[in-house]
Amino acid sequence: MTRLLTAPARDSIDELLADLRVDSSVYCLSELRAPWGFRVEGRHVAKFHLVLDGGCWLRIDGVDPVELGEGDLIILPRGEGHAVSDDLGSPVRGLDRILADNPLDTGARLSYGGQGDRTRLLCGGFVLADGVPAAMLALLPTVVHIDTARSGVAAWLEPTFALLRHEAEHSTPGAQAIFAKLADVFLAQAVRDFLVGAQRAGLLSTGPPADAAVGRAIELVRGTPARRWTLAELAHEVGTSRSAFASRFRAATGESPMRYVATVRLGLAAGYLGTTNLSVNAIARRVGYDSDASLSKAFKREFGVSPGAYRQCRGALTTTEPELIPRAR
Questions:
Q1: Range of 94's domain?
Q2: Residues 289, 178: one domain?
Q3: How far apart are CA 182 and CA 18, in angstroms?
Q4: Alpha-carbon Rg of the chain, whole angstroms?
Q5: Which of 123, 126, 173, 302 has the fewest CB atoms in 10 Å of its CB?
């Protein structure tokens, strides 16, 4: 446990994490009455949805539907197309079409839906600020669900969340600009906290590997960590023999392909432990382990503590000492 609470010597990666900032654009503050549903087309811009009030469901191809409640933040790092609705059975329309029929007011507010329960969403996109490698976003899973009210980031984000809700309640001039500035703070802290797990697992780097086949394999592993990866399957995906792939991968990264698969999975698990209230068993399934026992064994071997102890420790660090960014040894 001691090594988790010891501040390391700062290096370039630590500096990037500590100074990580985002530039966000708020598309709209949506006031939605059940039944409602909208679909956003995929584009290569990271997207987010923050639930200010109420609840909803998010659906994306290849991922189990995600139920969201008040205070939940969803980040889509690669901007995949997705649908959001009050209920899984509600009809869904294209957001572009909805906006054409329901123009935003001067405060970028959208009103849409029926006469039922209300949900308010702050929706937008973002990019990492200049000087931060965009490859950092590739370390995040397809969908990042952060339970801000129940995770270690709550103490940091609750004041910002309260300001967002206050702005949402009052139609004051310049509200869209205020939303964007507050979203910058919200997103930067949430993304940074998730990436701490990747940093501890040694996943952060300042550039892609020179070997294109290795780079492609890394993208595949990061994008689909739950897939049952084998050396043979990875080699097949990048069009090389197993022996050649293993040799090239080790030369480019300093470790074997399957060791890297485990590192990615454990880094993502650490991210989920630090920013969500998901059970260890649910996290295990998301990152490619058959059970909470198998994840716990691998996690303790990598990080020196159990998943539960890591979650408690991350909560303490997030709440009291933002400067302490632990790293794996």
A1: 2-16+23-199
A2: no
A3: 18
A4: 20
A5: 173
76 plus 152 within the same structural domain? yes
Task: Tell me which H or E stretch contains 184.
Answer: helix 175-200
Domain presence at residue 204: no
Does residue 128 share a domain with residue 77? Answer: yes
**Which residues on neighbouring strands pair with residue 76, listed in sequence order?**
47
Kindly state whether residue 63 falls inside one of the protein's structural domains. Answer: yes
**pLDDT per residue as tens digits for the range 241-256:** 999 999 999 988 888 9
Q: What is the pLDDT of residue 122?
A: 87
pLDDT at residue 99 tops 80: yes
Sequence-distant (6+) residues with CB within 8 A of 37 are 83, 84, 85, 86, 90, 91, 92, 93
> d(Cα 278, Cα 281) in Å, to the nearest integer?
8
Q: Answer yes or no: do 173 and 34 share one domain.
A: yes
Same domain? For 56 and 136 the reply is yes
Contact in structure between 32 and 120 (CB atoms under 8 Å): yes
Mapped onto helix, strand or coil, the DSSP state of residue 125 is strand
Q: Identify the band that residue 298 occupies on the pLDDT scale cut at 50, 70 and 90.
A: very high
